Amino acid sequence: MLIFATSRRGLFCRLGYTPASIYFHFVSLMEQLTDPHQIAGVLAEALPYIQEFHGKTIVIKFGGNAMIDEDLKKMFARDIVLMKLVGMNPVVVHGGGPQISGFLEKTGKKSEFINGLRVTDRETMDIVEMVLGGLVNKEIVSNINAQGGKAVGLTGKDGNMIRATKMYRHEFGDHADYGYVGDVESIDPALVDSLDDVNFIPVIAPIGVGTDGSAYNINADTVAGKLAVTLEAEKLILLTNTAGVLDKSGDLLTGLSMKQTADLVADGTISGGMLPKVECAMESIRGGVKSAVIVDGRIEHSILLELFTNKGVGTLFHF
Questions:
Q1: Is residue 191 part of a domain?
Q2: Are 276 and 183 in contact (CB under 8 A)?
Q3: Residues 220, 280: contact at Cβ < 8 Å?
Q4: In-domain check, residue 14
Q5: Which of 42, 62, 215, 299 has the smallest set of CB atoms within 10 Å of its CB?
Q6: How far lies 71's CA from each of 187, 197, 238, in Å?
């Protein structure tokens, strides 16, 4: 393993990583395997995918159990650093709904939902900004940096990166006021591009800014999908608490074309909480992203399994 790491010393040093950090990451991931043939097999299987994704942007929506379980949080951070080490440009967008609800409960403020959306008044929006843009965002940044990466935490307000408009959900046939809940109007990629250029890892909280300077809470899946299109990403990865899209028998569907996906939505196979994630994946592909995948974030190193193995994990969407 040391020979493998030092043979790429020049490349990784130009990326700002030391031979010691490279050695640490490969050894720590490989030490779980005891059979040398297994280790060789893993590396050989990963090589074509490392070559395929080298220099490409991968947008990862971080959410679900992976954001709560301490071991999974550390594994996620390590996986992101490894992606950067082998030449990819990972961009992380994170949620934080449970953390927001928990903080609101501590302050004695009751969470109110309409049609599955959190009603966000001014006081709640202040808490959302503090939790998403502060506590949650900085913890992810710290975890990545602790694994040897160079992460920078952002919200959509930084550099006016994510311009937002107030959300109105006409499809529900009501006139509910969701408060400071927003839709993405536009995304300026300049800040993320500049961080990628100097080999930092952007970690983005899904908070947008309106024309009047007001902050808006935006669904993290939506931000991840729109950002993937704007950055012309190679792949969008959505971490969830499910295995992926299931058929009516409960079996995992590992690959779906756009037409197959539309048919499954039409016949009700895809419904409920999975529907907005699938719509996000489909919209990103229509916008030019090469592929999108819904991955079970409860699986250890699920990102690496998806990127670097022949079978992958979850449900892959493509044209």
A1: yes
A2: no
A3: no
A4: no
A5: 42
A6: 33, 30, 19
What is the number of other CB atoms lying within 10 angstroms of the CB of residue 256? Answer: 22
Q: Look at residue 10 and tell me if it is in a domain.
A: no
R_g (Cα) of the chain, nearest Å = 20
pLDDT in tens, 206-248: 999 999 999 999 999 999 999 999 999 999 999 988 889 999 8
Identify the residue whose tokens are 């996620």.
76
CATH number at residue 167: 3.40.1160.10
Q: Is residue 18 part of a domain?
A: no
Question: 0.90 exceeded by the pTM?
Answer: no
Contacts of 149 (CB under 8 A, 6+ apart): 77, 80, 81, 84, 201
Tell me the two tokens of residue 274.
């999975």
pLDDT at 22: 41
pLDDT of residue 17: 47
CA 291 centroid distance within chain: 14
- Partners of 155 in the β-ladder: 205
